[in-house]
Each structure stands twice: as C-alpha cells, then as structure tokens.
Amino acid sequence: MKEGSEDQDLALLFDVSRASNEGGLDAHLSHILEGCLQWFAASGISVFIRQEHTDNFMLAAKLGADSKVPDGAQLRSGEGIAGACIVAGKPMIVRDPADNALLVGKYQPRTDIGSAMVIPLITPESGCIGVLNLSRRVPEPVFNSADLAQAGLLAHYIAMAVSNARLFAGMNSAIGETRALNEKLDAIIACLGVGVLVTNREGRVERWNPEAEAILHTEIKDHHTPLAVVLRASPPDLRYAAIKGLNRAQSGRKFSGRAHHALSGKSWSVVASPLPGGGATIAMQDVSSHEEAVRELDRVRRLAEIGQMTAAIAHEIRNPLTGIRSAAQIVKAAPGEVAEFGNIIEREALKLNDLCDEFLDFARPLTLHLKKLDLLEILQRLCNEYASKAEATGIRLRLIMDGRSPIVKGDLVRVEQVCRNLIQNAIEACRRDGVVQISLMEGNLIIEDEGLGIEENHLHKLFTPFFTTKAHGTGLGLSNVRKIIDAHGWKINVNSKPGFGTRFEVVFQEQQAA
After folding, report:
1. Which 3 state secondary structure label does DSSP give 494?
2. Does residue 130 contact residue 49 with C-beta atoms inside 8 Å?
3. Which CATH code fits 192-286?
4. 479, 462 in Cβ contact below 8 A?
5. Alpha-carbon distances of 415 from 49, 486, 503, rounded to whole Å
6. Which pTM was predicted?
7. Calpha distance 444→400 (Å, rounded)
8. How many CB atoms lie within 10 A of CB 483?
9. Domain 370-513 sits in which CATH superfamily?
10. How far apart are CA 345 and CA 495, in angstroms?
C-alpha cells in the first residue's frame, strides 16, 4: 500500500463504499476499481459478478495495464484460483501454489506478475456475489498480510456497494419497463374508439383518452381531478351512469348500463370495473348508431308483419264487396226510391274498395322506375293543383328556391306521391289565413305549416301504420311516404312545436346540379 495518512486511507475507503448509483452498475464498478487500484497500488484489477440464480461469475469490469482477462470471461465456484477463493470465502494472496493447498494444480505463475490477491465479495443476505482480482508487477512489493487484512475489511464495503448498485440497476430497469408499458398503454388507450377514464380509490381521474373528452364535452387538464368535476358538462343521464358505475366499482363489483339523452337522441354504453387498490376504469361508448339500427330493424319487421296482415284483411274484405256491388247494381235497376239506395250502397262499396287498394299498395313491395327528375317542375305543378283548395280556407302556398333547381334520381310517380301527401297534410294542418311554405334547396325539400303542431309523444308515431290524428284518416299516408323515401335511400325528418306548426324535411342522398 502507498504511504499516506490513515485519514486519507479512510477517505478513499469511504469514497469507494459510497460510489454513486446514478451512472448504473457499470459506472459504479469502474469507480470501485479505480479506488482499489489506488488503495492497493495495483497494476491490474478485474471484478467478476455472479449471475442471478446461478454459480456462474462473469467478468463485469477490468482496469490497469496488467489486467489481461479476455472480454466475456466466466468462472465457476470451485474452479481456478478465483473459484477456490469463492469456496474459501476469504481473501487470498497468490504467490507460490505450494503455499496454499487450495491452489495446487490451479495456478500457473506469470513471469511479469510479482504478486496477486483475490478478494471474495460477500454479503450476509446473498453470500458471495462477486470476486475481485488484483495484481502487482515484478518490481513492485508483493502483497503481504497487512494488505490481506485490509482487503478483508474493504471487501465488506465493496460487496455492499455492488449489491446496492445491482438493486438500484434492477429497480431502474423495472421502472424503465413500467414506464415503457405505461407509454404503450397510453398509446393504445388514445387510439381506442371508446372513452376511457381511470380513477384512483378517491374517485379522482388519473388517466383518460381523447375519446372520453369528446364524449363528455370537456377538456381534462389536470391529473387527480374529481370525477364529478370531469362529468360536469356531460348529459345528466350519462353523468348519473358514470357516477353509479364508479360507486359500484369501488365496492368491488362490475357495472354495466346505458344512458340516453332525449334532446340529442344520443345513447351511450357505460361499463365500470374495479381495479386493485380501490380504483376503477370507466369505459363509455357512443352506441347511438347501433341502437338506431336496431330500432330500424324492429320497425322494418313490424312493417312486414303489418303488411302481411293488411294484405290478408284487404283480400277478405274484397270478396264480400264483389257480392255487395253486384247486389247494388240489381237494386239500382229497381224503380222508385229503391234505386237511390242502390247508388248509396255502390258508392260506399267503392270507398271500401279504394281503401283495400290503399291497404294493398302499402303491403306490396315497391318497384322503382328511376330516372332524373326536376323537383322544381314537380312542385310547381302540385302547387298549381292545390292552390284553389288552399285559397278556399285562406291559406297561402309559398314556393321558394335557394340556388339552382336540383335534379334527383327517383321514381316520378312515387316522388309525386310523397310531395302530394306532405303538401296536402300541411294545408289541412295549417291555421286559417296561415302560410304553407315549400322550400327547395340543394339536397333538401322542406315543407312547413303554421298549424297547431304535434304533441311530442305523437312525433315518434307519425310514420307508424294506422296511426293518425285526423278524424277520418287511415294512418297509411305518412307510412307510405316513409316507405317510398326509404326505398330511394333518402331520409325524412320532422320537427314540431305545439302552437307553432310542423316542419317536414326530405334529405336527398343523391342529387346532381341542373
């Protein structure tokens, strides 16, 4: 050992034992080797570290001009000089093999090395975790018993430092893996078409994705924001379902429910699941399109059933009607007032026959003959046709057009039937001296009246077969309108406010400029 004060020696020893872990295990070992190289005035030094859960020791670092251990070198307990030292569990000076029975047959002296010392690194918890090899050149003093005693003292500090460095390295690796997994999880959540909120046990939001912000109509700026605050701008039913889901999940149970917003017509699926530690995940998905599709499928099925029933009824009515009309013809041929009764019977029979035609028209599938139609020309003709009927009740028909007349691809007879039905309904619903306005825009036909309007609980029934608010209506007019529009692939919307009139809008999905 180099000459120097004991305080300097202790300072160097302390510096070796407290080597920083910030640079990782490799940097830590390099720092230790530099300190030991100075401490023992060695010309070469190397350290082998035991691999986890094995008896193999692998070269971890080397330093000095005389350290000629090849990269990737390994040793095992009991094999070679270092292996013998590991078995002995104490520092060992290596000179003549005859001096130590453990070294017999395991050591071939090097001519350039005057002395060597092997120091096992032992901790009370893990046993031998590594071995340190030091060497001095031939001109330098050989290692002695004082060096060996110092090595035994130093080995304890080095072993603890290496063990702590390995723990820190493992912890940093685990933290890095956890961070990478979290980043991957955040990326996956961000791409989901489902809104996701993750809360802690106090009900504060710790993680979320953009879809959740879109569904809740809010921007979440801070972590640990209470769920109630995050839900503040969301629809009431959705807010209630999410809070209920959180409460259920915090009690360790899964929650699954639906929320609906009547004003917007939107629906959501809400699923909440408990997390270890008392937190919860809340998944929200907009299922409006799905529920609308289900409702439409149910409507089509009901229409099919009603159509079959209507066709059967119409056929059953027509059979006796034929006999009634024949009898009416005979009665009409009789003299006197009896003939008038025959006229009445025949007239009413014809009404029933027309009703049967309407039933059958509703029941049978549509066959469309598509061609390009000028909507303005159709509406102008119908307005002229209904002008006298409207004027008789003091109602004004107003036809306005925004831009050029749209050309649509449709069935002329069926499109006229739709327009005729909507215009006639608007005239019948409009108040006296009111206005029925027909607006033709690119891709839209809007027919509005200034009538009493329709109650909200009746709006969703308007296109249902046989539903009518008229005293003498059949309830098939708007059903046929919807059927024709669906067959063309178009859409029809209705808005009404009691006391302010009703607005029907036909949206053409396919149109071309004139």
Report:
1. strand
2. yes
3. 3.30.450.20
4. no
5. 88, 12, 18
6. 0.43
7. 12
8. 21
9. Histidine kinase-like ATPase, C-terminal domain (3.30.565.10)
10. 42
What tokens appear for 129 in the block?
């975790």
Structure tokens at 196: 């996701």
DSSP line for 425-458: HHHHHBPTT-EEEEEEETTEEEEE--B----HHH
CA–CA gap between residue 508 and residue 492 (Å, rounded): 9
Residue 246, Cβ density class (10 Å: 0-12 exposed, 13-18 middle, ≥19 buried): buried
97 closest CA partner among 78, 81, 119, 74: 81
Domain map (residue ranges) of the chain: 6-171, 192-286, 305-362, 370-513
Contact in structure between 157 and 16 (CB atoms under 8 Å): yes
Question: According to the model, what pLDDT value does residue 503 have?
Answer: 92
Q: Which of 159, 114, 136, 164 is nearest to 39 (CA)?
A: 136
Number of H-type helices and E-type strands within the chain: 13, 20
- Which span out of 77-91, 413-427, 470-484 was modeled with the highest average pLDDT? 413-427
Tell me if domain 6-171 and domain 192-286 are identical in fold: yes
Q: Look up tokens 């309407």; give the residue.
A: 358
Distances (CA, A) of 343 to 135, 335, 339, 356, 472: 133, 13, 6, 20, 22
- Cα distance between residue 17 and residue 159, in whole Å: 9
Please tell me the number of Cα atoms within 13 Å of 344 on its side-chain side: 5
Q: Which residue has the tokens 């023992």?
A: 40
Q: 127: which strand partners?
A: 123
Class of domain 6-171: alpha beta
CB hemisphere CA count around 118 (13 angstroms): 22
Per-residue pLDDT tens over the stretch 144-195: 888 888 888 878 887 887 787 777 777 877 888 878 887 777 777 777 778 8
